[in-house]
Amino acid sequence: MGDIAYNLESNDGIVGDDFLNMIQSTAAIIPYMTLPGNHENAHKMLHYRTRFNMPKNNYAPEGLFYSLNIGPAHFVFLNSEIYFGYQHDLENSQKLWLINDLTDANTHRNERPWIIVMTHHPLYCSYDFARHSIERNYICGAEARILRDKLEDIFYEQGVDMFLAGHLHTYERMGPIYKNSTVKSELDDLNLHLNPQATVYILDGNGGSVIGHNAEISTTPHLWNYYNSNDFGYGRMTVFNNTHLYFEQFSAAKEKVTDHIWLVKTRNRF
pTM surpassing 0.85? Predict the structure, then answer.
């Protein structure tokens, strides 16, 4: 979800070359789908745009935001960088495209009931009220509010099931949220939401980078927080069928799954 290779253009592009060589054996047989982060902004995203050939549409002819269908799920890849100075002129185009895309996806909800959206920047993560000057609080405060102002109502009105983001180098799983408040499902357990009535948010930015260890977790997690970790690791999602979606977080340090969540739907929100 953005910040690929740290950075693609570094050392005259050698870092990007080395990274693509590393993933070649996997990307040659499994589609490697990307979206841009702030570390792709250099040279007007030249290295990102020329190295990755993502699906294009009339609103994004260079593939900087797009969607695709896989089985019973509709995946949406958004470009959050347009809200922070890069190609700001794309903001209205992305909004119009997103509303049209999700409206169309909802006409196929019986066939593909799951809608999952991804960006680089998060809409939600826990502010740390005990340490006011840390980077986390800018990302989870001012930046997150910008994204919520632009996108949250669309996600809620269109029934987005899950939202994934990175940017902050940590892992945080949250429950169904709207307007910074928990929205109750028919059943909410530590690892289960039955028929959630708002979007479930996950921050998964702990894949690792050259800048050092991951960010410290918040000492004052919000009420909608379910699990935190700053272990290096990655997430795995399995959409089993029309009613069951499973997400788990794997810790590279512990070499095991350290968190998981089931979303179960017996009916659509519409």
Answer: yes
